[in-house]
Specification:
With 388 residues, the protein is α/β, with parallel strands linked by helices. The protein has helices at 3-17, 45-65, 71-78, 85-106, 124-135, 143-166, 206-216, 227-236, 239-245, 267-281, 303-308, 329-343, 356-368; strands spanning 191-197, 222-225, 250-253, 287-291, 312-313, 318-319, 345-351, 373-374. The chain has 13 helices and eight strands. Helix 12 links the parallel strand 6 (318-319) and strand 7 (345-351). The protein binds zinc ion.
């Protein structure tokens, strides 16, 4: 069987055996990688670019391969009722265009004898053609890396295709409804932001651990808090204490309850209540006028409401899957490292109600050294999908 068939069959089998645990927001098979198979460090811009070029060439071929399955193949694998093919095609085109741009960014300092530099690449067709030829020239000691990354890419692309196939019937981070919404696709090269959803935890819980870890590593993040969790924590402490734990961080809204804001009759009330509560507690300079919909699900026509509330929908493009019981800390480090090499910029999604990010992120910070910029969350206050 060829690459795409193997991945789709494994997704179909996973859905058969885990039908009760598969959440509508989560994939059945999580893309896992092994970053140790890349034998060099990635802790400087040049080293990062080299690993990024190689990863993008493998990823581009996986994108080409995953365009082969028919609607019937996808329906059978994803166990969904219909496929929005136009949305899937749109995602592929966007992803290929982004891969071309990313490759060009990564190839700026290409040396003539570097095996990750197959020459100038000027179009997506050129990217696919050169990647195909390049594939046969990969040094033998890197073949295990190539095969692992190809498998990871196919599984990751399948995750994204499922979201694209469901959009907009089931909305998600996969696409935007208007140019006030953003998902991190438009950030500057090698610039990343951190975000944490679903908190805060109880006092002295996982949120406090994440905040201490960020402080220790001189990083900050946007915390998209749930109104009901924020209120519960407020009842245990006081407004000053609660505001204080986020003093170098940013706080924004994840709605009052963790449910789809596309189907919930009270979605507007959820957003207004959460907004009022957060702004009454959080120091003005740390509040961001952003709303992150639970599961990324919001109404297609909600743009006018958000504009009236002076809020922007803030999504993500680098999903750690840290909430998923089938993925451990090392899986998260591997997955995020590879996704950062492929995407080269954007917003990482974690959850401060789980313990995994606290262990995974310091490893990423350390291994990436000065290869990337971790952006100050306060810069996101006025950001939109056009990169303004
Ligand atoms: Zn959430």
């Amino acid at each position: 069987m060829s690459g795409w068939r193997v991945v789709l069959v494994s997704i179909g089998l996973a859905l058969l055996s885990h039908t009760t645990t598969v959440n509508s927001a989560g994939p059945a098979v999580i893309a896992k990688a092994d970053r140790q198979l890349w034998h060099e460090r990635v802790n400087s811009p040049n080293a990062f670019d080299k690993a990024s070029r190689a990863a993008l060439l493998v990823y581009a071929l996986a994108l080409q391969d995953m365009q082969k399955p028919s609607d019937a193949d996808l329906l059978a694998a994803f166990k969904i009722k219909s496929i929005n093919r136009a949305s899937v095609v749109k995602w592929f085109n966007k992803e290929l265009a982004l891969s071309l741009l990313n490759y060009q960014q990564a190839a700026k300092d290409c040396g003539s004898s570097d095996w990750t530099c197959p020459g100038n690449i000027s179009s997506t067709a050129d990217l696919l053609a050169k990647a195909q030829i390049w594939r046969a020239t990969i040094p033998p000691q890197m073949l295990a890396w190539r095969d692992n990354l190809a498998d990871f890419s196919l599984a990751y692309i399948a995750e994204q295709m499922r979201l694209a196939a469901l959009f907009p019937k089931v909305s998600s981070e996969i696409d935007l409804f208007n140019d006030k919404e953003w998902n991190g696709d438009e950030f500057a090269d090698r610039q990343f932001f951190l975000s944490f959803d679903d908190g805060p935890s109880a006092v002295h819980g996982t949120s406090d651990d994440v905040l201490a870890m960020l402080e220790e590593n001189h990083k900050n993040a946007v915390f998209f808090v749930l109104g009901e969790n924020f209120q519960a924590r407020l009842h245990k402490t006081d407004a000053n204490t609660l505001s204080g734990i986020y003093k170098h961080q940013c706080v924004a809204s994840h709605g009052w309850e963790h449910q789809s804001h596309a189907k919930w009759a009270q979605w507007q009330d959820s957003i207004k209540r959460t907004q009022a509560l957060i702004t009454s507690v959080i120091a003005k300079e740390n509040f961001l006028p952003l709303f992150r919909p639970p599961y990324g699900q919001r109404k297609a026509d909600s743009g006018a409401f958000f504009q009236a509330q002076s809020l922007r929908v803030a999504l993500w493009n680098l999903d750690s899957q840290d909430w998923n019981a089938h993925i451990d800390v090392d899986d998260i480090i591997n997955r995020m490292m590879v996704l950062m090499l492929i995407k080269r910029h954007g917003v990482l999604l974690f959850h401060d109600v789980h313990a995994k990010a606290k262990a995974a992120l310091p490893v990423l910070f350390n291994e990436l050294g000065n290869a990337v910029t971790w952006g100050d969350c306060h810069l996101l206050a006025t950001h939109d999908a056009k990169g303004n």
